[in-house]
Design brief:
The chain is mainly alpha-helical and 470 residues long. 52% of the residues lie in helices and 7% in strands. The strands form four sheets. Strands 1-2-3 form a three-stranded mixed sheet. Strands 4-5 form a two-stranded antiparallel sheet. A two-stranded antiparallel ribbon has the order 6-7. It is flat, with a radius of gyration of 40 Å. It starts with a helix and ends in a 28-residue tail after the last helix.
Length: 470
């Protein structure tokens, strides 16, 4: 069912992208026509048409999710991307910057001034600000840091101090905590004071007065249990707890194994630091998969498909340099065997394909079609070629190979039942009992290295004969 939903969401996003592209194309065509026509109040008409198209495109963008807008921005060329980015509401800039890829985020940040960046960042939580911090200018980060409260500053410092592949980099600080010595009725009154609960809240964290984790209170138990019951009686005393310095892969495995929605993060003294939610884990798995795929392609990071050639070269320079070095090494190796290549020029034509070829040894149980012949190997091929050359030479070359039947008056010549088999001697030449054969048979075999090809003896009597009509 989830696969079907994912497919529908993907189709919806593609449809939204096509609609935005059609609106942009219509905007360019109509404004071009209005600009070329001469009419009274030309500037006013052109401005009205421009505002109509912008209003239609803005209404379309306002209905989309930030992740969908990020997908559309990544699929548009740079000029159209910046045009659409200017139409997005300012209070949604921060969420969209979190969703786009690193390469596209750089182009959007470059198009924004310091005041716009500060306004966009102030809408985010401290853990989200930590994700954007590496891409923001230092003066913007200073303004953002001064606008935070003391508690948020400490949280931002803590979030930026952890490694990218640690649990601390995945956690957020939106943990709802309660005490164990209160009733469930008091907990429900406390929750009603929130405008809304944090996303992916499936449990409350039970702490003592020193903020040490004592357990978790699942919301499903909170809603169905008697309100007069105490928290300590229904809480889970030993929940799965992560540490901020653990590897993020450990958290991903735990969420996958136990089907978690959220998990508490505590330090070595059991003091609650934050929580990790399933959406952060899914994002980490997706980014890890993309990084692995990029590394297989020889890329260090995601790349904007509309980026300049220079940016692409900077992203690929390491592998380009390795390919250049290996090409020089291959040329030196070929130069070392130049003498052998000169003696057998046919090898030069095989050099481009030799690197991509690999020998195939047929297995004992290989199954072949009816029309395929088995792989006979080189010695067997030599014997077959010798037999074919003997048949092509025709009768009369050597009386030892043919037997004549002395029928009365009209005997037919026929082949001997067992012709002498060829023998290979060291060096690659063929040795037969009768070595003085026609030139065709001698040219079937390569000579020793450094020896010229054997000359074809004249007068061998070998000629191509046309078949006689029946």
């Amino acid at each position: 069912m989830s696969d079907i939903e994912d497919l529908r969401q993907s189709e919806d996003v593609q449809q939204d992208l096509r609609e935005v592209q059609e609106l942009l194309a219509r905007h360019r065509v109509v404004e071009g026509l209005v600009h070329r026509q001469e009419m009274p109040r030309h500037e006013q008409v052109e401005e009205i048409v421009h505002k109509q198209h912008i209003a239609e495109l803005r209404r379309k963008l306002d209905r989309l999710h930030p992740a969908d807008i990020a997908y559309i921005l990544e699929a548009l060329p740079l000029d159209e991307r910046l045009f659409v980015w200017d139409l997005v509401k300012a209070d949604r800039d921060g969420e969209i910057l979190l969703e786009v890829s690193d390469a596209v985020r750089e182009t959007l940040i470059e198009a924004m001034d310091s005041h716009e960046l500060v306004a966009a960042t102030e809408q985010l939580d401290t853990d989200e600000i930590a994700d954007l911090a590496p891409d923001l200018p230092s003066e913007v980060m200073q303004d953002v840091f001064r606008a935070l409260s003391v508690e948020e500053r400490e949280q931002l410092r803590a979030a930026m101090s952890y490694d990218e592949d640690s649990v601390g980099a995945l956690m957020d600080f939106e943990a709802v905590t309660v005490r164990e010595d209160v009733s469930l009725e008091a907990v429900l009154r406390y929750l009603r004071r929130f405008d809304e609960l944090p996303d992916h809240t499936d449990q409350l964290f039970v702490v003592d007065r020193e903020e040490r984790l004592q357990g978790v209170l699942p919301l499903n138990l909170l809603l169905v249990t008697d309100p007069d019951e105490m928290v300590s009686n229904i809480m889970v005393a030993e929940p799965l707890t992560l540490e901020p310095d653990e590897k993020a892969q450990t958290a991903a495995q735990a969420f996958e194994r136990y089907d978690l929605v959220s998990a508490p993060v505590a330090d070595k003294e059991r003091k609650l630091v934050g929580r990790v939610t399933v959406n952060a884990v899914v994002d980490y798995i997706r980014e890890s998969t993309e990084t692995e795929q990029l590394s297989r392609a020889g890329l260090r990071e995601g790349e904007d498909i509309f980026a300049s050639v220079w940016d692409s070269v900077k992203n690929r320079w390491a592998w380009l340099a390795i390919n250049l070095v290996t090409a020089f090494v291959a040329s030196r190796v070929i130069g070392a065997f130049e003498g052998s290549i000169e003696k057998l020029v046919a090898l030069a034509a095989l050099m481009p394909s030799a690197a991509g070829e690999r020998p195939r040894a047929p297995a004992q149980g290989d199954r072949r079609g009816d029309g395929e012949r088995p792989d006979l190997g080189q010695p067997a091929r030599l014997r077959r070629l010798v037999a074919l050359s003997q048949r092509a030479a025709g009768p009369g070359d050597d009386g030892g190979d043919d037997a004549e039947s002395d029928g009365s008056g009209g005997g037919r010549r026929r082949r001997a039942a067992h012709p002498p088999a060829p023998r290979l001697r060291p060096g690659g030449r063929l040795q037969r009992d009768d070595h003085r054969r026609d030139g065709l048979r001698r040219l079937l075999y390569l000579p020793r290295t450094g020896h010229p090809l054997p000359a074809v003896a004249g007068g061998t009597g070998f000629r191509l004969r046309s078949p006689s009509p029946r």
